[in-house]
Design goal:
38% strand, mainly beta
């Protein structure tokens, strides 16, 4: 699954804060909303894991 496919699930809206991380680690690669360039740069990356929180945040771990 790619990061873009997570957006298609309906979990992400215009106000969702997205944090792109290095795999299962905590190193942040990008942070913002789905339409910001630094987040869009990871849209085609393969997802290793993701977590959605009730406070409208989603954490996406991408494969290295």
């Amino acid at each position: 699954m790619t990061a873009e496919k997570i957006n298609e699930t309906g979990l992400i809206d215009d106000n969702t804060e997205i944090v792109i991380r290095e795999g299962e680690g905590f190193g942040t690669l990008a942070r913002g909303t789905w339409y910001q360039d630094d987040i869009l740069a990871y849209s085609d990356h393969e997802v290793e894991s993701f977590t959605w929180q009730d406070d409208n945040q989603i954490y996406i771990g991408v494969k290295a």
